[in-house]
Design a protein that fits this description.
The chain has 428 residues and is α/β, with parallel strands linked by helices. The chain is built from twelve helices and 26 strands. The chain folds into three domains: 127 residues, FAD/NAD(P)-binding domain, CATH 3.50.50; 122 residues, FAD/NAD(P)-binding domain (3-Layer(bba) Sandwich); 101 residues, no CATH class. Helix 1 runs parallel beside helix 8. Bound molecules: flavin-adenine dinucleotide (FAD).
């Protein structure tokens, strides 16, 4: 295909995948980034908002400034519809934008599975705004009521990390009861069962009720009803069970699956519309990958590269997911590093997870003007030192923490090799 001058490229969604794509495209090359919100959000530490270890502001960066530094344009707006046949999209307020090529990196949103009352009474937990809403509701409840029951629906990564953070905050408050409802038979389905078992052991001394095989029938203002008609108190219901693609994808002719994720070939190109590339959680690859920020960023970089190749009629590259370990924090009780079948558990790994957060935020905010960059870095670094590392140092718990470091399960040398390669990729 001949290279056209004045190519217009739109990147829809400016978080992990979208920003990484923008960073991989040359400055002043006709790129416009669009997001409904002006601020980038670092979701992997979102659950810490509930314990007060992290403040929503620490997780955010100014998208417009990053885009301008990269030599691109940024628009704040809600995408209402995508017409991939006419290569057009419409923003709320009827503004229409044409494109020659497009990267869709809109991620997924919470899905209530049509459970009665869930949309009205449960608080989803995927954005900083939702985390702030949950925190405000929790604080109000604690000042209003003597006995409070907090429920988490969904025992995946977000649900488990949320429970850990609630236990960090209030595990010794006897007036609180925590419940976690999981449809399957273990926490973190698809991951080694030892992690689920270890978390249950850690919860045993506290008022924590984990229900497996639980199907929610309805959610009320202060109740949860199960399919077996059991009605339980729930003053705060946090919803982490299930995700779906954005409505404008579901209403579009672009090929997508039942979950509203866009079907792509192994080069992240839409299966139905070759001028559209998809990156991050929204991409339905022939071989599914875990919905993780590091995959989203790698996809963003590759989608940008393949988009340039497509414009120049060159061969596209295949997305190969990096074998990085999964890091799961369970408040201050434990942190797990999972690589294949190997599981390492240690409260000290919290510092490693924090280091990865600091590293990526530094890399991303390196695109900000200098004063803001240094202000942000020093604020984040001092706060995380104060909130995460200092308490452990003060309590002189290092020896005790070291003793708690264990290999919960050993999956063989292959995992060790992948672990080393994953770490090298992270700090590259
Ligand atoms: C609570 C929580 C904890 C997590 N912890 C981890 C972790 O520890 N490690 C890890 O690797 N991953 C973690 N993840 C997963 C990680 O956040 C996702 O994999 C990652 O955010 C996906 O990046 P993305 O760019 O594809 O989508 P997103 O980060 O979801 O970004 C999508 C962007 O598109 C915008 N957008 C969506 N629809 C529209 C529209 N209609 N109009 C305009 N803009 C729109 C949104 O505003 C958003 O900015 C966690 C996720 C959550 C929710």
């Amino acid at each position: 295909m001949p290279v056209k001058d004045n190519q217009k490229t739109l990147i829809i969604g400016a978080n992990f995948a979208g920003l990484k794509a923008a960073a991989a495209l040359p400055p002043q090359s006709g790129v416009t980034l669009i997001d409904r919100s002006p601020r980038f959000e670092w979701t992997p530490n979102l659950h810490e908002v509930l314990s007060g270890v992290t403040r929503p502001d620490d997780l955010m960066l100014d998208r417009r400034k990053i885009a301008e530094r990269l030599g691109h344009r940024f628009l704040t707006g809600e995408i209402e519809s995508l017409d991939p046949d006419r290569q057009q999209l419409q923003l709320s307020g009827q503004q229409t934008l044409d494109y020659d090529t497009c990267i869709v990196a809109c991620g997924l949103t919470s899905h209530f599975h049509d459970v009665t009352g869930a949309a009205a009474h449960a608080i989803p937990f995927r954005t900083a705004k939702e985390a702030s809403t949950a925190l405000a509701r929790l604080s109000a409840l604690l000042s209003e009521k003597q006995a409070v029951t907090i429920s988490i629906v969904g025992g995946g990564f977000t649900g488990v990390e949320l429970l850990g953070e609630l236990l960090r905050r209030s595990r010794n408050e006897s007036r609180l009861t925590f419940r976690l409802f999981e449809r399957g038979q273990q926490l973190l389905e698809g991951q080694p069962a030892v992690v689920s078992q270890d978390i249950r052991k850690l919860c045993a001394p506290y008022s924590v009720d984990i229900r497996f095989g639980a199907q929610i029938r309805s959610v009320g203002e202060e109740t949860i009803e199960l399919e077996n008609r059991e009605i339980l108190a729930s003053h705060l219901t946090l919803w982490t069970a299930g995700t779906t693609g954005p409505r404008f994808i579901q209403n579009s002719v672009i090929e997508h699956n039942a979950q509203g994720m866009v079907r792509v070939n192994p080069s992240l190109q839409s299966a139905s519309h070759p001028s559209v590339f998809v990156a991050g959680d929204l991409a339905a690859l022939p071989e599914p990958v875990l919905k993780q920020a590091y995959h989203a960023m790698d996809m963003g970089a590759l989608a940008a590269k393949n988009l340039s190749h497509y414009q120049q009629g060159q061969t596209l590259q295949t997305f190969i997911p990096a074998p990085k370990p999964l890091a799961l924090a369970f408040g201050d009780l434990n942190t797990y590093l999972i690589q294949g079948d190997t599981v390492l558990a240690s409260p000290l790994l919290a510092a490693a997870k924090e280091a990865v957060y600091q590293l990526y935020m530094t890399q991303l905010s390196a695109n900000l003007p200098l004063p803001e960059f240094s202000k942000g870095i020093s604020r984040r670094a001092s706060r995380s030192f104060k909130n995460l590392l200092l308490p452990e140092l003060v309590r002189l718990r290092w020896l005790a923490l070291l003793k708690q470091t264990r290999v919960l399960q050993w999956g063989g040398l292959k995992d060790l090799d992948n672990f080393a390669r994953g770490l090298a990729g992270t700090f590259h």
